[in-house]
Amino acid sequence: MASISPYSKRFISYIRRNQIRRLISSGVRIDGRTPDQLREVSITTNVVNTADGSAEALLGKTRVVAGVKVGLGQPFPDAPDEGVLIVNAEILPHASPYSEIGPPDETAIELARVVDRGIRHSGFVDFKKLAIDQNKVYVLWVDLYVLNDDGNLVDAANLAALAALRSTMLPSAVKDETGVKLDRNNKTALPSDLSKAPIAVSIGKIDNRLIVDPNFEEELSLDGRITVTIAQDSIVSIQKTMGYFTEQELGQAVDLAYSVRDKFKDILLKSLV
After folding, report:
1. Any residues with CB less than 8 A from the CB of 49 and at least 6 apart, and which?
2. What's the CA gap between 4 and 234, in Å, rounded?
3. SS3 state at 249
4. Residue 150's closest CA among 253, 39, 42?
5. For the Exoribonuclease phosphorolytic domain, which residue ranges apply (predicted)?
């Protein structure tokens, strides 16, 4: 759980916030959606020619680009026979009125952390096949760039990251007298299993109502927010970024996440055909 809410520095007018809350109490949202309705989703792969894998995800007006770069490095001490995953996120200064120039803030750090955790614990990428020898492994650098923030960055960034990894081509590792090098003229697909794709679903709470895919204004009105990441039929991570949920609300949020997961996964699979 984050010690500081990523949304603590953002605000919305009192009148607008009350309007959103009044509508939610009657089962209607500010943009006309029902509580369990996603915005339009689209995913496009291979959008960056210089990356080893890339994708763009659009969730409503929220727009995130993911790029994967493959390198070489040493394994982590607690996983000597596995490759390394490093996820970074950057919210570009023009992405929203609250974005600033400078190093990643707590929102970007939280975004990268949640996406990383889901991928790392799902089995989507076979990290054991990324070990070259005892001292050298493949390193997957996944960079997330938020081009426009209209809410629910986690779900959009997660979809972009999955599609980018799935499209990644792995350069061959070549050993010679000087060590291990990457042959970028000889590539194979990154070993991944789509059936284990970790799908992140963020649930917002306003009063006692739960909603999926909160837009930007709704995020500024939330009393609570939780992201459930599901791979196959198992929850691989849960991250609460703000507020609180009762035991009953948590159960409802998980059920809602499972139903939305199927919609996200169908869209992901169709984009990768």
Report:
1. none
2. 28
3. helix
4. 39
5. 37-171, 197-259
Domains of the chain: 14-271 (3.30.230.70)
Given a contact cutoff of 8 angstroms between Cβ atoms, the answer to whether 107 and 53 are in contact is no
SS3 220: coil
Token couple for 48: 């960056």
Non-local (6+) Cβ contacts of 127 within 8 A are: 79, 82, 83, 84, 85
Q: pLDDT tens digit string along 182-212?
A: 999 999 999 999 999 999 999 999 998 999 9
Q: What is the pLDDT of residues 27-43, one digit of tens each?
A: 889 999 999 999 999 99
The two tokens of residue 138 are 């493949």
| pLDDT score for 11 | 62
Instruction: Please check whether residue 210 is in contact with residue 203, taking contact to mean a CB–CB distance below 8 angstroms.
Output: yes
Q: Which two tokens stand for residue 16?
A: 């607008």
DSSP string, 63-98: EEEEEEEEEEEPPPTT-TTS-EEEEEEEE-TTSSTT
Q: What's the DSSP call for residue 60?
A: T
Cβ(265)–Cβ(197) below 8 Å: yes
DSSP 181-215: EEEEEEEEE--B-GGGPPEEEEEEEETTEEEES--
CB 55 within 8 A of CB 41: no
Q: Report in angstroms the alpha-carbon separations of 41 from 44, 145, 262.
A: 10, 17, 13
pTM, entire model: 0.92
